[in-house]
Amino acid sequence: MTIRHAIRLLPLAGASALSLIAGAALAQDDGLYPAPTAPDAAFLRVYTPGEEAIAVGDQTLQAGEIGFTPYLEVAPGPITVSIDGEETTVEAKANTHYSYVVTAEGGEFLTDGVTGSPAQADLVFYNLSDIAAVDVFVPSANAVAIEGVAPKATSAVALRAPLTLDLQLRNGEETVADVAGVELVRSAGTTVVLTGEPGAYEAQAELNTYAE
Length: 212
Prior knowledge:
Oligomer: single chain
Largest sheet: 4 strands, mixed
Number of strands: 16
């Protein structure tokens, strides 16, 4: 069963949970997709596992709790990303979301599957572990939401919202980490990231934010 079919069978996590997530959706304006100032704008954010100094162009950014900065609106074309003064140039296309992900092996410029749907929520997953293929599994639907994500890669799915889900990160049939109470807010995106190594994997989630 796919997540798109299974999600229709969910009781929306119960009336009380649905009420809470609907209230959260009203309060969390920082997670809503902003109207770009230019019709061809792109958005870029940076992930770092530590406390490195981060800049995109001439804009300084601060990483949040799980390591991602807010998305910054950028013009299409070459963009300079600076991590502790070490610069890298990436190429952004119009109307696309990107993440520049820094790991111990270096930087990866990834395209995020953000749709910006006003009626749905984007669930974006990053596998920053050493597991060859990670599935994002929804126990309440008994379905896989995102399948087979390779190391230093990302994948996404747009789901009905508002909704709150518990998620399991799986290596085959083995659950290596889980994250409870993941909020899916209409007209917003949520990021889940898996990090760590055997015996110490960790999954975290947060609503996407945008720099002002």
